[in-house]
Specification:
The complex is a heterodimer of chains A (about 170) and B (about 375). Chain A is mainly beta. Chain A contains four helices and ten strands; from the N terminus they run H-E-E-H-E-E-E-H-E-E-H-E-E-E. With about 375 residues, chain B is of the alpha/beta class. Chain B folds into two domains: about 120 residues, Rossmann fold, CATH 3.40.50.2300; about 240 residues, P-loop containing nucleotide triphosphate hydrolases (Rossmann fold, 3-Layer(aba) Sandwich), CATH 3.40.50. The chains are: A mainly beta (about 170), B alpha/beta (about 375).
Amino acid sequence: MSSTLRGELLAADFFTTAYRMSGHVDTGKRRLADILSDRLSDFLLLKDVYVSRIYKPGEIVAYYQVGSLIKERITFVVLPTEADGLSKDHTYPALTRQMRRVFITVPSFELQGSLKVVGKLDLQALLATGTDRFMPLLKATASSSLLPQVQFSGPVILVNKSSVELFCVADKD
Amino acid sequence: MATILIIDDDPDVVRLIEFALRRAGHRVLTAKDGETGLAITQAEHPDLVIADVMMPKLNGYEYCRRVRAQEDLADILILVFSARFQPIDRQTAMEAGATDYMPKTVEPSELVAHVEELLSTSPAAAKVKAGQVVALFSLRGGVGVTSLAVNLSLAVALTRRQPVALVDMAPLAGHAALMLDLRPTGGLHKALASDGLITAETLKPYWQIHDSNVQVLSSPMSPGEAGEVPPAAVQPLADSLRQTFSLALLDLPSTLSSSTAAALTAADRVLLLVTPDVASLQSAAIALQALNTLEVDTGRIWPVLNTPGGVGGLSPEAVSKALRRSLVATIPYEPGMLSALNARRPLMLSSPKSAAAHAIARLAAQLM
């Protein structure tokens, strides 16, 4: 309800290595994935920012009306709906698109989810080339490496490609 | 009908939920931050609170902790409703004292359904299902307590097509029966005099039944029969009324006797009548203090503004501000009220389309 009720304001959880930040992004007519990949700005403006420490992610330790987040320092973003997280390109149907289960580590977290790939999965092309700064993991879960019982799930998690440490692909079903 | 407080800093969310809850027949209060929400919770004692987590000044978790730290607010249901939708958020909310947790991704209809479910399991709901006893009271005479009691009972009896009890607790010459064109027989006092035992069965012969299905226990006409209802008989009376009726209205005299105090304590709700003048306001403020001393939960007290005069009265906002309580209803001035009284045809029968009748009908709907 929140994303529709807040009009163009999208609620999301942003994670860095040590913090969880819940806030709203004014997306205008764009999608968050496109805003994050926009190289013209290194910052993401958040409204109503609530900060939690990663070892106690339910507790709110700080609140600010506005905050600027350095895009490069975001390790991943958990979104409430799938449509909010896919870039315009990802929403086009493709006959050769297939889902692959992946396991990824980023600082302080392990991520699992499904990746939409077209044709053969080419890791070099996925992580090192292309203009997208973040890749969408669908039906994804992030588990804290220090507190594995602390998990964050969502229909889509946007993962910062430059934060990826380990990338593993499950065998095809 | 329950009193529900929404605490959220997003006016769009508040508007949407408020609309859905009002449509479901609930009385809705709102606050835009946790601090204000806490103050309203203490003043109004709502049945259920829908609290956002991410709010300025006092976040939803801290709000829950502060409410739970106060013994007299322990029975309030708190539904945390947040854009933070992770299992850890639910766990944190429950540890802070929330009754339940819902993510803001749900539709308003789902939220309302969940609210109804929570309310149906609460102790307050069990009381309502058993029938509710509503006391109408003012420490200032002539503010329209009996008129409102009569018209409210008619509003419920006519719209719901079910019997409604109207008990005239005045020691002498109560006018409830008179307004309904019934001859006061002192049924309540006779029932008490017969063997002193009050049950649904022993009350049966003393009810006077109006065509509308309002059933009246009238007060006596003869000074020889006059007297206050013994305080010890009030609780059994209220219990008997709950057994028999879905709604029973107690028309209380404007004195704070031990009998009135017992009725105010035994009632599920107290409609505190006030008129828009300083004398009535002063009486209402004293009544609120008295109710506080009697440990009547603030959520059970519903201030109602009645406007028997035409011009020059204080505004509802000024009355609400002076009482530091939001008004549950405002009954506007109705020129036909006096002729309705003289014709012994109360407003709900003589002018059901008047603005005052509409306001009374809305109040009746809120009660039910």
